[in-house]
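We store chain and fold; example below:
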Amino acid sequence: MNSSEKFLIPSVSAEGGRDENLKRNLKMILMDGFNKIGLLLMLLCILLFSCSKDGGEDLSMAQHVLLVYIGGDNSLSDETYQKIESIRSGWKAENDNKLLIYSDASDAKPLLMAIVNQNGKNVLKTVNLYMEEDSAYKETLARVIGEVKNLYPYSPYGLLVFSHASGWLPPGTLTNPQAANKSVLMDGISEMDMTDFANAIPDGTFDYIVFEACFMAGIEVAYELKDKTDYILASSAEILSPGFTEVYPQIINKLFDGDLKGFAQTSFEYFNTKTGWRRLATFSIIKTSALDDLSDFVSQNCDLNKEINIGDIQYFDRYGYHLFFDFEQYYASLIGSDTQREEFRTLIDKCVVWKAATPDFMINYNGFTIEKHSGLTVYIEQEQFSFLNAAYKRLAWYGAIHVK
């Protein structure tokens, strides 16, 4: 999600409501935990939770571990509480699966929680409570991932990320592309760069990464993460509030069942059955092991110096300028023969294993008709965006397709 979500968008803040009890309980844990008595009690609770086997907790083995990383220390803070409650209410603690949530809201201290089942009810238990920190720092993300892996060192992992985002773009350039200065996560005025996000993740860590965030289906994002995860579920365009909040009770368990496509399809159907401007979605699942074949093909068969009219290429953003274009349509325009285009399309189909898009996207709010959706987007260099062009040349994708 990104700061442009309020740009020509009717208010949706009342939609879905907020669980005040959850917010009040979390804030009591977080805000009171740092007085002298509260701190002692909190440390005791953390110690008991970390070392006790009560409730069947096994901190070494799990069938599957999902880390939900919520960067909500920004305008999405209220939505943070809604998502936690929605996930908690829908999750089924089965087959020794584990679900942990790192939450950093603007009105509370950050913490790492686990959802555990006690007497047939899902409850939030604090694993670790932190002093104020920046969830958009790569060091924070890396530490949280490390803590989860230390808790469950022999388990497969998944990651779900919720925050403001703008794909590969350097911090601050989504709404000001000529600036010399939000990429993946946002904390106050801090934003995490895409390469920092990737560098915070050890190679081979995740089975999948789900981005409940805007513009993350770019080839640039996927290529930076190709050694970090097997699959990426992301959106080519924005994801508008309330995002997956209302559908989490129906989809969260699909991630533990190995049904990433089911998670994506149910999410898409939720948006696709909306009416008016709320009917909007551009989702895809990207298989990262197929990305090298794509880069090799582009490098060997596309005339990267060919000039084209970018006005003819499908775009996925709602500005007076455009930074996210359809991947297949752009590179197909640089290919010389129909035979090569068919080969290119086959390679994309092996990489984008699932995709779905609504017919249009906020068409009456500076939006666009979706005539082409390959499931990947790409940046096209433009003369007026010299800073972006220079930053683009530092990405792994650019280096891969410009190999001599």
About this structure: The radius of gyration is 21 Å. Residues 3-287 form a domain with the Rossmann fold fold (CATH 3.40.50.11970).
